[in-house]
Amino acid sequence: MTQLHGGVVPPVCTPLTSQRDLDVPSLERLTAHLLDAGVHGLFVTGSTGEVAYLPDQLRQRALEVVAGVAAGQVPVLAGIIDTTTPRVLEHARAAKALGADALVATAPFYAPTHPSEFPGHFRAIRAAVDLPLLAYDIPASVGSKLPVEVVVELAEDGTLAGLKDSSGDLDGLRAVLERTDRAVFHCYSGSETLADLGLFLGAHGLVPGIGNLDPHGYVRLYHAATRGDWDAARAEQLRLRKLFQLIHVGDGRMGRYSSAIGAFKEGLAALGVIANPVTSEPMIPLDDTERAAVRAHLAEAGLL
Amino acid sequence: MTQLHGGVVPPVCTPLTSQRDLDVPSLERLTAHLLDAGVHGLFVTGSTGEVAYLPDQLRQRALEVVAGVAAGQVPVLAGIIDTTTPRVLEHARAAKALGADALVATAPFYAPTHPSEFPGHFRAIRAAVDLPLLAYDIPASVGSKLPVEVVVELAEDGTLAGLKDSSGDLDGLRAVLERTDRAVFHCYSGSETLADLGLFLGAHGLVPGIGNLDPHGYVRLYHAATRGDWDAARAEQLRLRKLFQLIHVGDGRMGRYSSAIGAFKEGLAALGVIANPVTSEPMIPLDDTERAAVRAHLAEAGLL
Amino acid sequence: MTQLHGGVVPPVCTPLTSQRDLDVPSLERLTAHLLDAGVHGLFVTGSTGEVAYLPDQLRQRALEVVAGVAAGQVPVLAGIIDTTTPRVLEHARAAKALGADALVATAPFYAPTHPSEFPGHFRAIRAAVDLPLLAYDIPASVGSKLPVEVVVELAEDGTLAGLKDSSGDLDGLRAVLERTDRAVFHCYSGSETLADLGLFLGAHGLVPGIGNLDPHGYVRLYHAATRGDWDAARAEQLRLRKLFQLIHVGDGRMGRYSSAIGAFKEGLAALGVIANPVTSEPMIPLDDTERAAVRAHLAEAGLL
Amino acid sequence: MTQLHGGVVPPVCTPLTSQRDLDVPSLERLTAHLLDAGVHGLFVTGSTGEVAYLPDQLRQRALEVVAGVAAGQVPVLAGIIDTTTPRVLEHARAAKALGADALVATAPFYAPTHPSEFPGHFRAIRAAVDLPLLAYDIPASVGSKLPVEVVVELAEDGTLAGLKDSSGDLDGLRAVLERTDRAVFHCYSGSETLADLGLFLGAHGLVPGIGNLDPHGYVRLYHAATRGDWDAARAEQLRLRKLFQLIHVGDGRMGRYSSAIGAFKEGLAALGVIANPVTSEPMIPLDDTERAAVRAHLAEAGLL
After folding, report:
1. List of domains in chain C
2. Pick from C168, C171, C193: which is nearest to B193 by CB?
C-alpha cells in the first residue's frame, strides 16, 4: 500500500465510449499523462470522475484500471460516494479489493442526517475496511457542511486520516489545520482557483479537476508553494484561473457541471489523451461552437 | 399489472433484523396490516422505507416481498432512488423484473444538475422501462425543486404518469393540477399534516409515512374528502396531526429523520406488526424514554 | 380606535407622482375603491405598498391619507417595517399618532438576530405603543421564519394580537391556529393564490396584494368560505389565480417584485383608480408590451 | 476631503449610554484609540457599529463625532445602510453634510431585488451625492451576493470607487481584483480571520470588527503583508484568530451577533476605552460569566 503524502492529486476524469462504457485505453492514457506530469496521487471516482453517474461495475473497473497503471508509484484514492453508511460500506469493500490505497467518503446525503450522526458514519466505514479514510466535505453536493468540531474529533480518535475540502470555506479549513496534527492528518484543497491560498494556509495537497488538462501547472504551483515562493505560486495560479474559464463554455444552455465536465473531456480529447469527449446522461453535450471555445482556451494557455 | 387509481398509498417501512438484514416476516405482516386497512396502493423503497440506506439486494428483496403479499390487489410503486440516470436505470430494470406496477424517480442529486437536464433524465427512464413513471419532488433530499413547467411538459408528452409531491409547495402542486389532465396524470401529496389540503386541491392520493401506523385514519380522511365532507376530513386530519407529534420524541438528541423513522418503527413494534424497531446506520436509535413516549402517543390516539 | 375582525384587508399600493412624491388624490381614490368593494380593513405601508422604498415622511403621509378616508369605517393597520427595535419604535410611535388602529412588525432583519431575541423585539414594541400588534412573518424579506413556539408564547402573554403570515408555510400557520385562542388572536394569510386554503385552516382574514385590483373577488371568496361553501371559494380562487398571472409580465427582464408591483400599478392606472403607474427606484418600469399584457389580463378577467 | 488609500479601516463600534443614547465621550476615546494605533481610515455606522439598530439621529451624531476627532487625519467612511434607493439617498445626503469622505452602500434588501436592478441603485446614489462610493457586499445581511459582473461594470463606468467585501467569497474578490484597475478601484476585506488572504490576493485594505480591540495587530498584519513578509502576516493572523474566539462567549444563549458585539464592547470597556458595554435592543446582553470570559481572552492576548 502506497502512503499519502500530500501534493497534487487530480480527480481523474472517467473516459467513456460512445456507448457510455468505460473507455479503458483512454483511461490508461489519461493516468499515464498525469503520472508523467509528476502528480503525487490519483483520486478515482470523485465528483469530477462523474462518480454519481457511474454504475457500480463501471466505478470498480475504473479504479482497477487506474490502480493497474499507477502500480504503486503514487497512492490511488477511491471515492466511495453513496447516500448512507450501508451503501458506502459496499463501495469501501470493493475499493479495497481492487487496490485502493485510501478511501474518500462524504457525509450521508439524500436521507436528512444530523451532524450528531456523522461520527457514526465515518467510524463504521473505518471499522469495516482497513484503509486510511478521508472525509470529503462537499456541501454543494451533499447539502451539509462537515463541522470543524466533527472533523477534529474524528482526526483525534484516528478515524480520519485526512480531509478533502471542497466546501470553499477557507476559514473552516484553516481551523481544521490549526487543530490537527499535520504529521498524521492530511488536508487537501479541492479548489482549482484558490489552490495557492489552500497551500498558504498549510494544506498538504490539491485535488484540482482541471488538473486533468494541465497537471504540470498544478505541480509547478505546488512546488513553488512548498519552497515558499509565493509570488511564483500566485502567478501560476493566475494563469490557471484564466484557463479555468473554459468551464463556462456551455453557460446559459446547460448546467455548470455539464459545462465543466464537458469542457474537461473535450480538452482531453483535443490533447489526444482520450478518444471521446462523451459525458454521462442526462448531461447536455457541448455543441460545436462550445467545443471550439474549449480548444481556443487550450491554445491560449499554450497547451494545444 | 395493477393500475394506479389514487387513494392512500403508504410509503412502506422496511423492517430490519437486529443484524440489519431484511426482516421478511415483519414486512409481510406490515403489508397485510396496510392492505387490511383498505389502502389503495403501496409505495416500497421510498424515503420512509429508508431507501437511501438499503443496499441494492435489500431494496430488491423488499420489493419482492411486498409485491408477493399484494399479489395484484393494489398497485405496488417502487422508488428507484439513486444519484443520476445510469444508476437509476439499473434500479428501474430490477424493479420491473420484481413486479413493480409503477416507478417513482427523483430529480438527479449529488451531481449538480440543471432543470434543463431534468427532462432527459425522466425520458431516459421512461424509454428504458415500460412502466408508469411518477416524478418524486423532494427538494429537501435532492436539493432542487421540480419546476412546474418541467412536470407539465413531461405530463403532456406522456413521459410522466404522475407526481409524488413532497416539496411542501402547495402552490406548485395546485399549478400542476390545473395544467394537467386529471384523467391520466395522477398527483399524490406526501404530506402527513396537510393531506386534507392536498385533496382539497384535487390531488388523487396520499403517501403519508405515518400511514404505516394509522392507515385507517388516512383511509377515512381520503373517503371523507372524496365525498366532499370537508369538516370530517379536517377533523380526521387534526387527529392525525396530533399523532404525528410522535416524530419529535428524539428531538435535540438526534436528527429529525432518525427520530421520525425510529418512532414509526417503534410504533409498529408496539402494535405487534414488526418484530424489531431497529433502524439503519448511522441513525441514532431511540432510547427507553423516547420509546415510552412513542407508546404514550399511540395510547393517546387510541391505537394501543 | 376601530377593532380588527378578520376579513379582507388589502395591502394598499402607494401611488406616486412622476417625481415620486406621494400622489394623494390617487391614494384617496384607491382607498375609496377598496372600501366600496366591502373590504374589512386596510393595510398601509406593507410590502405591496413599497414600504422598503418609502422615506419616513412619505410613509407617514400615506398612512394619514388612508386613515383619513377610512375615517373609522374599517381598521387601518400600519406596517412598521425597519431593521431592528429602536428604528421600529420610531415608526410605531408615528403610526399611532397618525391614526393607525393596529401595528404590523416583522422580525428584525439585516442584523443577524437569533429567535431567542425575537420576543424581546415584539415586547419592546408592545410596551412602547399601546396598539394591537401583529407579527408579520415574511422570511423571504427578513431571512428568518418566526417559529411557531415564539408566536404562541407571544400570543399567550398578550404581546401579539395576531399574525400576518406571508411565509407560505401552511403547516406552521395551522399549528399557530391550533395553539392560540381564535377569539383574541387573529391570523391573516398573505397568500394571493392559496387564500382559500388559509381560510379552510381557520385563518381570520386575507391580505392579498392583487386585492388592490380585484377586491370584490377576495370579498366573494371570503364570504363563500365564511358560509362553508368551499366549492364557491375554490372556484373564485381559481379565477383569481388566473388573474394573478399578470405579475409575470416582466419576467426575464426584471425581478419578480418589480414585475408584480409594476403590474398592480399599471392595472390600477388602467382601471382609472390611480393616475400614474410609476414605481420606486431602483425597480425597472414595465415597457409598453408589458403594460399591454397587464391590460389584456384585466380584460380577460372582465375587470376592464 | 481625505482620500481613501487602503490600509486598516476598522468598523467603529457605537458606544451607548445606559439609556441607549450615544455616549459621545466614549466614542471620542474610541476614535482616538484607533488613530493612535495608526489605522488608515475609520468606517462609521457599519454592521459592527450596530447601524441596523441606530435611529437616524444617532447615526448622524456618531458620524459627526468620529469625523470631528479624525479631523482629516484619515478618511472617514460612512455606512449608508437602508432598504432601498430612496431611503439610502437620505442617509447619503446627511453623511456628506456631516463630513464623510466616502459612502458605503449595500445592495437593496427586504424588497426582493434582482441583480439587474443593482446598477440603478448604485448609480442613483452616485448621481445624487458627490462622494466616492463603495459597494458593501454582505449577503448574510442583505440576502443577495453582488455579482462580479455588476461590480466590474460599476467600477468601469466610475460609479463605484471600491468594494468592501464581507461575503466570504475570496474567489469573487479575486475576480474583482483581476478585472479592475487597482490604481482607482479599492477593495477592502471584511474578514477578521482571513485578512492575510485578502491582502495576499491584492486587496488594498481591511475592515476588521475586532480591530476595535486590537488595532495594532491588524496594522502590523497589514504592514507585514505590504512588505511581502507573509510569514509575519500569517503569524499575526494566527494570533488574531485566537483572540477572535471571544466572539463565541455567548454561544448557545444568544445569537452570534449579540455575542460578538457584546464581546467587542465588553472588551472596550475592560480596556477603559468606553464607559459602558451596553448593546442595542433586542440583543441579549452578556452575563457575568461571559463578561469574565471576554476579559480572560484579552488577558491571554496580552491586551489586558
Report:
1. 7-230 (3.20.20.70)
2. C171
Q: What is the pLDDT of residue B2?
A: 87
Contact A159, A119 (CB under 8 A): yes
E strand or H helix at C292, and its extent? helix C288-300
Rg for chain D (alpha carbons), in Å? 18
Residues B9, B39 contacting (CB under 8 angstroms): yes
How far apart CA D92 and CA D105 sit, in angstroms, is 9
pLDDT of residue D233: 98
Cis geometry, peptide bond prior to residue A132 (ω within 30 degrees of 0): no
Q: For residues A69-88, give the mean pLDDT.
A: 98
Residue with cell 487597482: D182
Q: What is the DSSP letter of D251?
A: B
- Tens-digit pLDDT profile for residues A243-289: 999 999 999 999 999 999 999 999 999 999 999 999 999 999 999 99
Strands (E), chain D: 7-8, 42-44, 76-79, 102-106, 133-137, 162-165, 186-189, 205-206
Amino acid C2: pLDDT: 87
For B54-67, what is the mean pLDDT? Answer: 98
Q: How confident is the model at residue C38 (pLDDT cuts 50, 70, 90)?
A: very high
Beta strands in D62-168 (DSSP E): 76-79, 102-106, 133-137, 162-165
Strands (E), chain B: 7-8, 42-44, 76-79, 102-106, 133-137, 162-165, 186-189, 205-206
Q: All 3 cell numbers of residue C225?
A: 368560505
Which of residues 84 through 143 in chain C touch D, CB cutoff 8 A? 84-87, 90, 108-114, 116-121, 124, 140-143
What cell numbers appear for D91 in the block? 442617509
Cα–Cα distance measured from residue D240 to residue D217, given in angstroms and rounded to the nearest whole number: 7
Q: How far is it, in rounded angstroms, from Cα B220 to Cα A155? A: 53
Q: Which residues of A touch D252 (CB under 8 A)?
A: none
Q: Residue for cell digits 402527513?
A: B192
Alpha helices in chain A (DSSP H): 24-36, 56-70, 85-97, 118-128, 139-142, 148-156, 170-179, 195-200, 215-226, 230-244, 256-270, 288-300
Contact between chains at D174 and A168 (C-beta distance less than 8 A): no
**Is pLDDT of A1 > 80?**
no
Q: Would the pTM of this model clear 0.90, i.e. be above it?
A: yes
CB contact (8 A) between residue A170 and residue D194: yes
DSSP SS3 for B231: helix
Chain B residues whose CB is inside 8 A of the A84 CB are 52-53, 280-282
The number of C-alpha atoms within 13 Å of D43 and in the hemisphere containing its C-beta is: 35
D85 vs C47, C81, C281: nearest CB: C281
Q: Which amino acid makes up residue C30?
A: L
Note the ipTM here: 0.97
Q: What is the CA radius of gyration of chain A?
A: 18
Residue B151 near residue B119 (C-beta atoms within 8 A): no
Asked whether the beta carbons of D80 and D108 are under 8 A apart, the reply is: no
Residue C205's DSSP bridge partners are: C7, C188
Query: Distance between CA A198 and CA D70 in Å, rounded?
Result: 38
* Residue of D19, D57, D83, D90 best to disrupt the C interface, most CBs of C under 10 A: D83
- List Cβ neighbours of C240 (8 Å cut-off, separation of 6 or more): C192, C193, C195, C208, C210, C214, C217, C218, C221
Angle at A295 between CA A290 and CA A301, to 5 degrees: 130
The one-letter amino acid at A41: G
Is there a contact between A16 and A22 (Cβ–Cβ < 8 Å)? Answer: yes
> Residue A226 above 90 pLDDT?
yes
Q: Residue C302's CB: how many other CB atoms inside 10 A? A: 9
Cell of D113: 431585488
C-alpha cell at C34: 377598496
What does the block give as the cell for C282? Answer: 431602483
Tell me if C68 sits within 8 A of C34, measured CB to CB. Answer: no
From first CA to last CA, the distance across chain C in angstroms is 36
